[in-house]
Amino acid sequence: MASGPRIVAELGRPETPQETADRKAASSAAYRSSKTFRNLIAALLITVAVVAIIAIGVPRGTLAEPEPVDVAAAAATVSSSVGHTVIVPVVPADWRANSARLEGDMWRVVYAPPSGFVRVAQAIDAPDGWAARELGGYAPTGSVTIAGITWDEYRIPSAGRTDSVSYGLSTDAGTDTVLVYGATDAATAAIAAEGIADQIRALREETP
User: What gap in Å lies between CA 139 and CA 152, rounded to an integer?
Assistant: First the structure.
């Protein structure tokens, strides 16, 4: 037996066909809205899970360390091209050579010791005052003898540092000037200075 029109409690009478249609439409809209929200939440959860799997499961590698610079080979090339001997520092095995090149009339090697950095520079036929200018205009603060070579010593205060340079040593090598400097201390710079002492003596002997 077919049921009669639904009684609407608030109205105390059967609902009209229009009210029935409106009620069903509202119910369908609410259902669709609820289903869409659930689908959205499910999609977000799936996305988060996929991202987590990728983040955890994809293997990660580290960038390969660049090959250290061959200082001796670079020095041989430069010496041949300019017709002048350039120094090859003898440093500990754990000092990484980051660069070795001719910059104008200056041959410069940059090392990365266990901490800080050390530059060894050789100005060919250096003009007077070159070392001080290279160090930002600072004058020597004293002198020190390393492996029989007397060096001017530069202790640069933190307030006046440029390029993080805190310490330097300079000496003549015939007509050249050699400068050891960087973000380093006296003991570390002395290692580099000792490693070029014989070559400095040789350059001095070459000078007429």
Answer: 9
